[in-house]
Amino acid sequence: MALPVAAPGLAADRKTDVPNIGWIGVGTRGYWVLQQMYAGNPKTTRVAAICDTFTDHLNKGVDYVQTKWGNKPDAYTDYRQILDRKDIDTVFIATPEHLHYPMFMAAMKAGKNVYVEKPLAHTIEQGAEMVRAWEKAGVVAQVGTQNRSSTLYRRAKEMVAQGMIGDCHFVRAFWYRNSPSDKPAWRYDIPANANESNTDWQRFLGGQAPNRAFSLERYYQWRLYWDYSGGISTDLLVHQTDIVNYVLDKKLPQSCMASGGIYRWTEKDDRDVPDTFSAIYDYADRFQVNYSSYFGNDHYGYGEQFMGNQGTIEVMNRKDLYFYPEPHGDAVGQKRPELHLNGPNEFGEADGLVNHVRNFIEAVRGNEQVIAPPSAGQQAAISGHMATLSFRNNRKVFWDTARNNVRLG
Ligand SMILES: NC(=O)c1ccc[n+]([C@@H]2O[C@H](COP(=O)([O-])OP(=O)(O)OC[C@H]3O[C@@H](n4cnc5c(N)ncnc54)[C@H](O)[C@@H]3O)[C@@H](O)[C@H]2O)c1
After folding, report:
1. Is 42 helix (H, G, I), strand (E, B) or coil?
2. Residue 242 beta carbon below 6 angstroms from any ligand 1 atom
3. Is 51 near ligand 1, meaning CB less than 6 Å away?
4. What is the gyration radius of the CA atoms in the chain, in angstroms?
5. Which site in 102, 111, 165, 251 is 20 to 30 Å from 136, CA atoms measured?
6. In the chain, how many domains are there?
7. Residues 6+ away with beta carbon under 8 Å from 150
8. Is the CB of 318 under 6 A from ligand 1?
9. How far away, in angstroms, is 97 Cα from ligand 1 center?
């Protein structure tokens, strides 16, 4: 994964051999990233403090750190107490989508290095402000779009650059899932002991989301509601538009038209976000992405298919890369062999996460540049927001470069 270049903008006195870390959010993702950080960087990291507004998650995170690193981190329910600490130079933010903006902005103000989970922000405007704040702050920041750090996708990028698929004007990408009717998608289990006193509803709303009565469903299943999430667009799709941009050196789409609905989970379910969703993106340089996601059948799983006029590269489930020569296009008669690479077998990588976190830590240590800075995270997130805006307005949306925002068609 090494990109052995000193991170620009990181002043010499900011580099640190062992980043002293504050961790904000140790739910499903935060706890997993914490474990993966230990797996990749046991000696070059130290976790000094953890913050979570649900007591069980907070305790679990503190216990993990104490067991693995041997020190007992300080526990907080107010993240600002972490940012106030001068001894903490680096923070991880793995809270729900609508909280990334206030936490990231406060962290920039406090001069911390930041790893923030995707999507960068809940809106285009917030993301743009975050990019500007990062550009001024002179700190290291990485967005959690970890596909970029997977060797499999780097191979795909190299193969495209070598001309293996010829010209590519079209990518098909998808993420399909299924679950039993009585276990609706994204209706995660709510811990049996969870209540208003061992969570913190006002801090969950964070001054960002509309004020509502306390709701365990909204606290633990926030992905289902527009107030806190863009649903499929910002939860799943952003990973895939991000990696398409990365593999093919693309930037922003020029337009997006999205469509879908709640077709499966209609009974006794108050979700806002679709379970069936498609989005078509057109880019200025004669290129289209055709995206779809459905939560009622997972036969085709997860994938991106880079369809060139001389061949196809298909990355499936973030684990397998296939190359197929194109039998009917410009490459007829070239007799190039098919290829299959399995990430876990060939590179010992379950996905890109361990590399991604290590890349961030090494950037904080002054040894590498981050592969997913906020500017790249914003590009990926914009695609997601364009799809949400198109769907919710039932209109095609266009990217307006002059306004740095979308325009409804
Ligand atoms: N990169 C990936 O592949 C990937 C995968 C899953 C999730 N994610 C992202 O990770 C983030 C978290 O998702 P999740 O699935 O872990 O959600 P989650 O609901 O499981 O965890 C969120 C945690 O944040 C805590 N929290 C809520 N408000 C807080 C506050 N004000 N201060 C401190 N803690 C607070 C909650 O108690 C919970 O422990 C999201 O942005 C999500 O999109 C990324």
Report:
1. coil
2. no
3. yes
4. 21
5. 251
6. 2
7. 318, 343, 349, 351, 352, 355
8. no
9. 7
Q: Residue 39 sits in which domain range? A: 12-148+353-371
Q: How many CB atoms lie within 10 A of CB 278?
A: 18
**Cβ distance 91 to 82 under 8 Å?**
yes
Compute the distance between CA of residue 106 and CA of residue 83 in angstroms, rounded to an integer: 8
Q: Is the distance from the beta carbon of residue 97 to the nearest atom of ligand 1 less than 6 Å?
A: yes
Is 146 touching ligand 1 by the criterion CB < 6 Å? yes
Q: What is the DSSP letter of 234?
A: I
Percent of the chain with pLDDT over 70: 97
Token pair, residue 2, equals 């090494």
- Any alpha helices (H) in 15-123, and if so which ranges? 28-40, 55-68, 79-83, 100-109
Interior CA angle at 180 toward 178 and 181, to 5°?
110
Regarding whether 290 and 238 lie in a shared domain, the answer is yes
Domain assignment present for residue 1? The answer is: no
Ligand 1 pocket member 206 (CB < 6 A): yes
Q: Could you tell me if residue 220 is inside a domain?
A: yes
Q: Do 118 and 174 fall within a single domain?
A: no
Residue 323 and residue 159 in contact, taking contact as beta carbons nearer than 8 Å: yes
The pLDDT tens digits for 145-184 are 999 999 999 999 999 999 999 999 999 999 999 999 999 9
**What CATH number does residue 341 fall under?**
3.30.360.10
Atom of ligand 1 at shortest range from CA of 54: 37
With a 6 A CB cut-off, is 27 part of the ligand 1 pocket? yes
d(CA 281, CA 56): 42
CA of 101 to the centre of ligand 1 (A): 13
Rounded to an integer, what distance in angstroms lies between the CA atom of residue 15 and that of residue 5?
Answer: 13
Please give the torsion angle defined by the CA atoms of residues 174, 179, 184 and 186, in that order, rounded to the nearest 10 degrees. Answer: -50
pLDDT tens-digit map of 24-69: 999 999 999 999 999 999 999 999 999 999 999 999 999 999 999 9
Apex CA 150: angle with CA 179 and CA 18, to 5°? 110
**What would the two tokens of residue 236 be?**
């799943």
| Average pLDDT value over all residues in the chain | 95
Tell me the residue ranges of DSSP E strands in 245-308.
Answer: 255-261, 276-283, 287-294, 302-308
